Amino acid sequence: MIGILHHNEQMPCLLCQSEAREFEADYLHCPNCDLRFLNPARHLGREEESARYDLHLNHSEDPAYQRFVSPAVELIKARISPPTLGLDFGCGADSAVIRLLRDANYEINAYDPLYFPNENVLQKKYGFIVATEVLEHLHRPVEVLQRLKDMLEPDGALVLMTHIYSEKINFSTWYYRRDPTHVAFYSAKTFKWIEKRFAFQSLEIHGDRTIWLQAR
């Protein structure tokens, strides 16, 4: 059982397993991959976490929700021709990504451990995989990222959305860390580490939230 940190205590990084040090109460920073993460002892239990997700009021026909995911959707539409098979990983109860891409004649499967726990779709290969607002929730990100990479076709794309941390952000007052289900925070340096660790061909960061990782 992982306990509460004492001052300057170390703990293995959730992502790269290097030694991370406390940098703010209950949060640690890894100097190797630059991940910032919540002490696992402070993670919500599964029932509490599920109850929080049920409060998310995302509807696929909501124009605001569609605008929010549009950076990822528009990148896919610009670079990958339909009807390429894709996967929305961690799609939630009602995915605007799926709605918009199916409307554009893409084939796209849904997977979510709570709402669409169909393990069969995880046995397929995909021309692209989308994961919007997923990474920050992962307790074991390296395992999930490896699985996603393994599901990509050669030259396939992993398209991620998460609010990217930068030094300009005041972490102590940052809105993104106020959600108790957000346990990991990634910087541009973190994504460069991910690119190298999982042998992606290239990395692109668009704005402060959209990441494109191209497989070989």
Structural class: alpha/beta
Termini gap: 39 Å
Percent helix among the residues?
25-40%
Strand order of the largest sheet: 6-5-7-8-11-10
Please trace the helix and strand order, writing H or E for each element: EEEEHHEHEEHEEHEE
By DSSP, the count of extended strands is: 11
In DSSP terms, counting alpha (H) and pi (I) runs of 4 or more, how many helices? 5
Mean pLDDT: 93
Proportion of strand residues: 25-35%
**Tally of individual domains:** 1
- Give the low-pLDDT segments: none
**Biggest sheet, open or closed, and with what strands and sense?**
6 strands, mixed
CATH fold assignment: Rossmann fold
Per CATH, the superfamily is Vaccinia Virus protein VP39
Q: What gross morphology would you assign?
A: globular
CATH level-two architecture: 3-Layer(aba) Sandwich
Mind telling me the CATH class?
Answer: Alpha Beta
- Determine Rg (CA atoms, Å): 17 Å
Question: Can you characterise this structure?
Answer:
This protein has 216 residues and is an alpha/beta fold. It has one domain: 3-Layer(aba) Sandwich (Rossmann fold), CATH 3.40.50. The chain contains five helices and eleven strands. Strands 6-5-7-8-11-10 form a six-stranded mixed beta sheet, sandwiched between helices. The chain has a five-stranded antiparallel beta sheet with strand order 1-2-3-4-9, with no helix packed on it. Strand 1 and strand 2 form a beta hairpin. Helix 2 crosses helix 3. The chain is globular.
